[in-house]
Design goal:
The chain has helices at residues 7-20, 43-54, 66-74, 82-89, 97-106, 161-171, 225-254; strands at 25-26, 39-40, 76-78, 111-114, 117-119, 140-143, 176-178, 187-192, 195-202, 205-212. Strands 6-10-9-8-7 form a five-stranded antiparallel β-sheet, covered by helices on one side. A hairpin with a 2-residue loop joins β9 (195-202) and β10 (205-212). It is an alpha+beta fold.
């Protein structure tokens, strides 16, 4: 029963409740008026539409449209021509395209990395990026400890969706500038101030390799205390931000 007092808030609370207990899917999308949000009573419809985008890296045929070629190579959806992409991969004409773009962001499939540019790392090709041999500092390794009997004995690796969602979460942060042209499915390149940062997916762990740009190079006499402090502060900030986001992502993926 919804009474007249704050009826809108009560109705939204009811929508959220039904969403969480699985009656339907309801997403409060950022930048979309409440009346434009959709309720998916059949969630398989939404999963099928998103799967048409995810499957593109396994598709044997070469894309015909520029937007689709860009998406398959760089994981980029452009606001100006995304309808060409949606048409070629077979997104239903009944699906509001602007709404679907917002859903992809809301579910952490994509990050907006520039005006009208959305990055979807899940569809990137695998294993074509070479990382320099000698990082400025030793790579940071993030491993995971699970409670005893949390998973079956046959499950030794982490769910792969953790890495891609982490890449999206970091791409959404102001300090992290994503470089789609220099990334692949298991290696995402960012710039972080004067540093170059690689997020690397490894079995059972995630590594972060940090390199200095030329603007950060130490003097010929060697690193001065100010240089070392600046590098330390940047690396500490990177570690804290990755840790914070990976905890959030792990919670959403594994509960």
């Amino acid at each position: 029963y919804i009474d007249d007092h704050q009826a809108d808030d009560q109705f939204l609370a009811l929508l959220r409740l039904f969403h969480h207990i699985g009656f339907f899917a309801y997403y409060e999308l950022k930048g979309v008026p409440l009346e434009s949000n959709w309720v998916c009573t059949d969630t398989t419809f939404l999963y099928k539409e998103i799967s048409k985008l995810l499957i593109i890296r396994f598709h044997p045929h070469n894309p015909q449209r520029v937007a689709t070629k860009r998406f398959k190579k760089e994981g980029i959806i452009n606001e100006r021509d995304y309808q060409e992409l949606f048409k070629e991969v077979g997104i239903s004409e009944e699906t509001p395209s602007e709404w679907l773009l917002q859903v992809l962001q809301n579910l952490s499939f994509t990050a907006e990395i520039g005006p009208g540019r959305f990055f979807m790392p899940t569809v990137l090709p695998k294993g074509h990026i070479e990382i320099p041999d000698c990082p400025t500092v030793q790579p940071l390794c993030f491993a995971f400890n699970f409670k005893e009997d949390a998973f079956s004995e046959n499950l030794l690796d982490l769910p792969r969706s953790i890495f891609c969602q982490l890449a999206v979460h970091l791409a959404n942060k102001d300090e992290w500038d994503t470089c789609p042209n220099d990334s692949d499915r298991s290696t995402i390149r960012y710039t972080y101030g004067d540093l170059e940062v690689f997020l690397i997916d490894k079995p059972g762990r995630i590594e972060v390799a940090v390199f200095c740009f030329e603007s950060f190079i130490f003097s010929k006499k060697g690193p001065c205390p100010a240089d070392l402090k600046k590098l330390h502060d940047h690396c500490a900030a990177i570690k804290d931000e990755v840790k914070e986001e990976i905890e959030a992502v792990s919670g959403s993926v594994m509960g």
